Amino acid sequence: MAAELVEAKNMVMSFRVSDLQMLLGFVGRSKSGLKHELVTRALQLVQFDCSPELFKKIKELYETRYAKKSSEPVPQPHRPLDPLTMHSTYERASSVPRTPLTGPNIDYPVLYGKYLNGLGRLPAKTLKPEVRLVKLPFFNMLDELLKPTELVPQNNEKLQESPCIFALTPRQVELIRNSRELQPGVKAVQVVLRICYSDTSSPQEDQYPPNIAVKVNHSYCSVPGYYPSNKPGVEPKRPCRPINLTHLMYLSSATNRITVTWGNYGKSYSVALYLVRQLTSSELLQRLKTIGVKHPELCKALVKEKLRLDPDSEIATTGVRVSLICPLVKMRLSVPCRAETCAHLQCFDAVFYLQMNEKKPTWMCPVCDKPAPYDQLIIDGLLSKILSECEDADEIEYLVDGSWCPIRAEKERSCSPQCPILVLGTSDANGLLSTPAPTAGRQRVWGAGSGGAQWAAWRMGSRELMWWT
Fold first, then answer.
1. In degrees rounded to 5, what are phi and psi of residue 73?
2. Contacts of 237 (CB under 8 A, 6+ apart)
3. Is the full-model pTM beyond 0.90?
4. Do 408 and 418 meet the contact criterion of CB atoms below 8 Å apart?
5. Domains of the chain, with CATH numbers?
6. Exposed/middle/buried for residue 48 (C-beta within 10 Å: 0-12, 13-18, 19+)
7. Residues 292-324 pLDDT 10s
8. In this structure, are residues 192 and 244 in contact, taking their beta carbons and an 8 Å threshold?
């Protein structure tokens, strides 16, 4: 009977949501909830009320789901392995010889085998949750070493351990060894661990479970700590990002053992291992300059569209001002950039934006505070041209026809006289006016105004008085 219970539990843990709902509906239990809640409910059912009818239904669902159209035999579940022998999430070990390692009757694949959670040798597709992680701009994925795989608690303890054993291929080892160093001791090509919620509805961001600790072979790996909070009553936040395991791994054909310790508090998490190449902000900037520049004419058309007369609006917009100062660092823009999804024309500096996200990735627009991910960034070709042509202004105004004018230059023209200044003095022999020397720091200046009027000014030191006559 114990063997049947183990077999039933293994089959239940391989079920998808639809299978779990069918099983729970069969016995009149609630079918609502997240997947990990359905799994827990079904396992409790097997543990405490596994009747022959229930076991038959579990086996029927299992065989129906994994029965193949060809004449190949239906795969059967096996007994669970020792917690040290974890299940492969995608199996390349079928063609690899198995060599016993040191330990009591423990059998591992020598190369490239990946086992997780001690779930037993179920078909590969049963342990592939449809979890996707968001793409990270600073990491180019080279190989997927372990597909996103759910962390399944092995008992009722709050603190769980999930080990994983695998080995790098010779090609992967060479990629790591031959890669340049981003900083002393940190290679550009890395093996990273990523953890996220087991949510299949959308690509997931990195999210650590409570009480996380990662051990690689015989050493614990550093996990990013919490950012201190300056606001009272606000909990400090922890930056969740890929965890670099490379410096603690065996860069050879030897197997590496990774153990993730995590707190089991109801939420379900998945882990994945990737071989990646980490990029710098300079490399991302160069890529953006190569593929992300928006042509000036397209930017001009966007300006016209923004300022187009709205028949439903009572206020006609004749222009929109755009600052040439970056809102991030309060310096003049060098590479004007914004997200294509942003509704504003104001830009920020791509250089500083990428540098800030390299240190603390948020990917939020500093102008409108909305998401501005890397793959949606564009360099404004029109504003780039304006920056090169207008070096003496900090602000410009776009007009309805798509043209522009510098704001400060307009103010200077409006404050300056419309005609040359005439200085009255005595005539010399040639009939030319000579400028009289100022008396006691005073100087009287006359000029012609519009409509025949004249204006006069007294300059007294640094003060100037002006009136019309």
1. -65, 150
2. 226, 227, 229
3. no
4. no
5. 1-72 (1.10.720.30), 80-279 (2.60.120.780), 282-413 (3.30.40.10), 418-468 (no CATH)
6. exposed
7. 999 999 999 999 988 886 555 556 667 899 999
8. yes
